[in-house]
Design goal:
- Chain B: It comes from Pelotalea chapellei.
- The complex is a heterodimer of chains A (about 210) and B (about 270).
- Chain A is an alpha+beta fold and about 210 residues long.
- Chain A folds into three domains: about 5-75, Winged helix-like DNA-binding domain superfamily/Winged helix DNA-binding domain (Arc Repressor Mutant, subunit A), CATH 1.10.10.10; about 85-150, Arc Repressor Mutant, subunit A (Orthogonal Bundle), CATH 1.10.10.10; about 165-205, no CATH class.
- Chain A is built from eleven helices and five strands; from the N terminus they run H-H-H-E-E-H-H-E-H-H-E-E-H-H-H-H.
- In chain A, a hairpin with a 2-residue loop joins strand 1 and strand 2.
- Chain A starts with a helix and ends with a helix.
- With about 270 residues, chain B is mainly α.
- Chain B has two domains: about 1-95 and about 100-125, no CATH class; about 155-175 and about 190-260, Arc Repressor Mutant, subunit A, CATH 1.10.10.580.
- Chain B has helices spanning about 1-20, 30-40, 50-65, 70-90, 95-100, 105-125, 145-150, 160-175, 190-205, 210-215, 220-235, 260-265, and strands spanning about 155-160, 210, 240-245, 250-255.
- A four-stranded antiparallel sheet of chain B has the order 1-3-4-2.
- In chain B, strand 3 (about 240-245) and strand 4 (about 250-255) form a beta hairpin.
- Chain B is elongated and about 85 Å long.
- Classes of the chains: A alpha+beta (about 210), B mainly alpha (about 270).
- The interface between A and B is large, with 46 and 40 residues.
Chain lengths: ~210, ~270
């Protein structure tokens, strides 16, 4: 019996993502480092296998999950959770995820609108949780994201969230493309540049 | 300014079309402002306050015209915009000038808009991820496979109180609008009557559909009374209620099945 087969069987039978810590508890006869490399090998194996599911690290644990490209076929058998998030729910969730711990008033300031209903829905869906109370007058509740949030969005941990800078960079791509195109027809546009004063900003930038 | 005024009818028209279809388009004043800025292809960092304020106020007026409740948040932003504009118009005092020289009255608003935009996009990014239960599945993440649902499509499934309330609401929504002209109703239906009616029906049959109870007389009163009667019967543990899917039809059966009572009779 190989260790990787043992680990694989435990993960397969587990209902929730299985953490390395838990695995160490269960398999005390093996070294932590052994188990860790075993998990990485297993993940690589399932990735390279090209099967319908793979081993992924979510919410601090390991879990077998189907690949998203098979969604259309899976839903013929299982019913999808109606996980349709409204833009306001996603916005609020993003604010809480990036700014936690955060109070409702702070969320509302950022969104400029009342968020009581959205926060309650997110709490009901267990995507966010109450972390405690802030030690300021009124002792408002402070919110943060839950383990279910990581599981639902397939995130290893909070650090796996794309940084706000990366998101901003996505938004700025069109501008970068514009800049890259400039050198290609530099010769052709050189004369025109002098004719069009508003283009000088770009040529100065490049 | 004239230019802006000419633009307005088209803005109003487009908003009208947009808004009728989808009431939840704008998630608050910042969202609306961002929409206006994008629509006019403006730079967030250099907003022409007069143009934006006018369009913003037009939009609020439109919301009022459509009888939508304009939330206080929208009005607060309107007053903020006007405040900024007035500060930009007024000449600075000589003493003040030193301190406030570089402070653009718009700075605070711009900072909030940029920050809001950031989180709005972050929301889109996380929303675009492959979600568990939507794109990605684990073993047993969806307890209810379609296959089993198809097998007992007509059969009842246990439900919770809130499913019942939802089904009730769905039913109410189907009721044609009533006219309230005849104030004095000829005879009002009592819950007791309704309970008796249901119990006698249950004598004949094991399974009754909620819609059947109200199909003859689909008025709001009838449905409400029937619903209350069901709740009452449930409380008295005389019937059990089922539904075969969320928001689905309500079915009910006697809590003590008829076979049992027949046995009882034959034993006597």
């Amino acid at each position: 019996m190989s260790l990787s087969a043992i680990v694989e069987s435990i993960i397969f039978a587990a209902e929730t993502p299985l953490s390395l810590d838990r695995l160490c508890d269960l398999l005390q006869e093996f070294e932590r480092s052994e188990l860790k490399s075993c998990l990485i090998d297993l993940a690589a194996f399932h990735e390279g296998r090209g099967g319908g599911f793979h081993l992924v690290e979510v919410a601090g644990g390991w879990q077998f999950r189907t690949r998203s490209e098979f969604q259309d076929y899976i839903v013929r058998h299982v019913r999808t959770r109606s996980a349709k998030f409204s833009p306001s729910a996603l916005e609020t969730l993003a604010i809480i995820a990036y700014r936690q711990p955060i109070t409702r008033a702070e969320v509302e300031y950022l969104r400029g609108v009342d968020c009581g209903g959205v926060i309650k829905t997110l709490l009901d869906k267990k995507l966010i949780r109450i972390l405690g109370k802030k030690e300021i007058p009124g002792r408002p509740l402070i919110y943060g994201t839950s383990k279910e949030f990581l599981e639902t969005f397939g995130l290893k941990d909070l650090k796996a969230l794309p940084t706000l800078k990366e998101i901003q960079a996505l938004d700025e791509t069109p501008f970068m493309e514009l800049q890259e195109e400039l050198p290609l027809d530099q010769n052709a546009t050189q004369n025109i540049d002098t004719l069009l004063p508003f283009d000088t900003e770009h040529s100065a930038g490049s | 300014m004239k230019q802006v005024r000419e633009d307005n009818p088209s803005l109003l028209d487009s908003c009208k079309g947009y808004y009728n279809v989808h009431l939840d388009v704008f998630d608050g004043p910042l969202d609306l402002l961002l929409h206006l800025i994008r629509k006019n292809e403006l730079d967030v960092r250099d907003i022409p306050i007069a143009v934006i304020t006018r369009q913003y106020l037009d939009f609020i007026k439109l919301m009022k015209d459509l009888n939508l409740e304009v939330a206080g948040d929208f009005l607060l932003m309107a007053s903020t915009l006007l405040h900024i504009k007035s500060r930009m118009l007024l000449p600075l005092d000589d003493q003040e000038e030193g301190e406030v020289e570089e402070a653009d009255p718009r700075a605070e608003l711009i900072r909030r808009l940029l920050e809001y935009q950031q989180y709005k996009e972050a929301g889109l990014v996380i929303g675009a991820r492959a979600l568990l239960g939507r794109e990605v599945f684990t073993r047993g993440c969806c307890e209810e496979p379609l296959a089993s649902r198809m097998q007992n499509d007509d059969g009842p499934v246990e439900l919770e109180l809130f499913d019942l309330v939802d089904a009730f609401r769905a039913l109410l929504a189907r009721v044609p609008a009533e006219s309230f002209h005849d104030v004095a109703a000829a005879d009002s239906l009592s819950i007791a009557d309704c309970i008796n009616e249901m119990l006698s029906l249950l004598q004949e049959r094991d399974l009754i559909h909620f819609d059947e109870m109200v199909s003859l007389e689909p008025t709001r009163e009838r449905i409400v009374v029937t619903f209350l009667a069901i709740l009452e019967l449930c409380r008295l543990k005389l019937i059990r209620i089922f539904q075969n899917e969320p928001h689905g039809a309500i079915w009910f059966i006697p809590a003590v099945s008829r076979d049992d009572s027949n046995d009882g009779v034959s034993a006597q």
